[in-house]
Predict the 3D structure of the following.
Amino acid sequence: MKKTPIIIDCDPGHDDAMAILWALASEELEIKAVTTVAGNQTIEKVTNNAIRVLTKARKLNIPVARGAQEPMVRKLVVGGALVHGDSGLEGPKLPECGFTVSELRALELMVKVLEESQEKVTIVGIGPLTNVAELLITRPDLKTKINEISIMGGGTVGNWTPAAEYNIFADPEAAKVVFNCGLPVIMSGLDVTQKAYVTREENERLRGQGNELSVFAAELIDYFSKYHYEVEGFPGCTLHDPCAVAVLVHPEIFDSKQCHVDVELNGELTTGMTVVDTIDYQKKLFGKEVNHNTKFLCGVDREKFVEYFLEAMKKLN
Ligand code: RIB
Ligand code: CA
């Protein structure tokens, strides 16, 4: 099977960790690099976490490069202390780092992978989009080597403010660059990720699979789900970031609509909001052409999502 090369840009983060594991288990994908961005925790912590997750999965040959320690123009708002804990990956026991961080910065590693790849690369952006925006701004010539950009972020609801989801809120200028870069964007926003949840019973089935990484994923969910049950009152643990990987390997389980999305930068109440036009108002009202720049995911077959997730974790040994 021809594998799609991917770069995962992330801020581990429990759900980032599960997204990485799902990508590792997917024979359709090949992780060429993991780059880190400050978000859930500081750049030091999320970089350390990314290496420890790959060490846990015994994948010591995937380069991890450290990226932006703060957003493009705004101050960093660390988003994960309440949700992911002080380390950014509280809960499961993690191994020490089994390898050192790349000498290259995230941007340099992204450029290297794109320049060397024979195939077009898919970028999976599951934290604030600072690194991805920097790549698009500084090396627009490399857009020809990018297949699409699959992000977790945004939505028609918020989870950091009433209007804004955290990844977009953390660096709205970067997100605006990504949505307007002209490449296909797949948006796993809260409209779909809040439906992609794992129940307690399903998490026990995951743990019961018995292999080390299924147990590890179940322990990630044990910790990560506390916030979703106690604060958000959800019926399960929402797997935000894994949606951005799952849609690449199981697109058929998602409902989506091709539409225009842009990002608010200046709203007193709405900064960081993804403005999702599912109606094409400008076209209907004024006949203006609307740029359907985004595949907006609006639903998922939750049971199939969970079954595929458990199947992927079971494959990891
Ligand atoms: O709002 C959810 C997003 O913020 C996820 O990517 C999670 O890891 C945090 O970064
Ligand atoms: Ca994340």
About this structure: The domain at 4-315 is CATH 3.90.245.10 (Inosine-uridine Nucleoside N-ribohydrolase; Chain A). The first strand starts at residue 4 and ends at 10. Residues 173 and 265 are 7 Å apart (CA to CA).
